Amino acid sequence: MRKAIGKQTLQNNLSGASPENLDGLLSMLQEGSKPSREVFIALLQEGCSPATIQSAMIEYRDELLSEDKLSADQVRKVIRQFDRLGLLLLNAVARSWQGQVGELESRLSNAGSELEIAAIHSRWLREGEVTLYNYFYEVPIMARVAVHDVRESGFSVDWSPDLVRVVAAGEYARFAHIRLPDLTSCLLLEVESVIGKHVNFRYAGTFKTAKERRQHIRVQCGDVLRLTLSGASDQNIETAVRDISQSGFGMNILHGGAIQNGETYSFNLWAQTGELKGFCQVRWLDRAGETKGQGKAEHGRFGVEIDLTPPLLRRMQLEVSKRKKRILAELRAIGSPDSLI
User: Fold this and answer.
1) R_g of the chain, CA atoms, integer Å
2) Residue 193 exposed, middle or buried by CB count within 10 Å (0-12, 13-18, 19+)
3) Contacts of range 8-15, beta carbons closer than 8 Å, 24 or more positions apart
4) 92, 99, 112, 286: which could form a disulfide with 301 (CB 3.0–4.6 Å)?
5) Looking at the DSSP assignment, which residues form a beta bridge with residue 191?
6) What is the fold of 219-328?
7) CATH for 128-213 (2.80.10, 1.10.357, 2.40.10, 1.20.1510)
């Protein structure tokens, strides 16, 4: 049962295979080594098609089965052996295609990013301006700047006080962002150098951000605001407001009970301009403070959306405006241009 089609016949079927991989295949066909899909993967990587590998294996099997002295048990053994090898080949083909598809997806993703950046470059060149921005205590700080010398690694813009504030607003300084067309991702820019009145930025990558999906400006509260929530059970839950927008609050639970995600509550807020009352709905709970699987939390952060009436909207706009002015004043007082850029 050791009659073989021979290495020369394998070479005729698998002309692109290396002698080492041909020997590995021949050894498996002759039951001289443990079956391994790695041999098949290596053959596929060398350009041998699954069909030609299968054809070579079938030719070898048929020659074995043509021997007159084989018993019924030996025939069944040969068939089972080649069935196992056929399954290994299919497994190797699947692994090989998974790798190729993964690599192709990566290339397509990179190509898509490069095309997107190229399209943005084209727009900058055509319009000659771009809006840079950062967040300072949740308030977006923006500057429309003139673009010069757009290049593969970055571009230059004109120095301006607004640009200084944008760079100062960055969490780590010396950075600015550009919103990409999908509005959920940003292009990160790093200050590379300053030459005269030109600031040179280099591209420092892209990142996803949820901030672009906000409907209203959010500002952090520099003062202590206490807000009480009352639900259907008449239980009062005490909270501390962390940030505020004209349509909602971000808060920390202090004490009083559990917050239910999606639940509607009445609220009382004591601000410097007086008391604010209304209704709100819980829109999100910080997972760190959420009771697993129940959508409830007795500590941690959460956010609510307010059921706005015209009087309440005016009051909320006033509260946001007052804090925004204070935040922008703090930003203008930070540092000097030479220390920021």
Assistant:
1) 34
2) exposed
3) 9/56, 9/59, 9/60, 10/56, 13/52, 13/55, 13/56, 13/59, 14/43, 14/48, 14/52, 14/53, 14/56
4) 286
5) 201
6) Thrombin, subunit H (2.40.10)
7) 2.40.10
**Strands, sheet with 259-260, edge to edge from the N-terminal-most edge strand:** 259-260, 296-297, 290-291
Q: Which residue has the tokens 């498996």?
A: 28
Q: Where are the domains of the chain?
A: 7-99, 128-213, 219-328
User: What is the separation, in whole angstroms, between the first and last Cα of the chain?
Assistant: 80
Give dist(CA 131, CA 178) in Å, integer.
Answer: 7
**Who wins on pLDDT, 280 or 55?**
280
**Residue 77 buriedness (CB in 10 A; 0-12 / 13-18 / 19+):** middle
pLDDT, tens only, 291-306: 555 677 677 889 999 9
- From CA 291, how far away is CA 284, in angstroms rounded? 13
What CA–CA distance (Å, rounded) separates 198 from 178?
18
Q: Could you read off the pLDDT of 180-232 as tens digits, one per residue?
A: 766 677 888 999 998 888 899 998 888 777 665 567 888 998 888 899 999 87
Query: The tokens of 22 are what?
Result: 């041909």
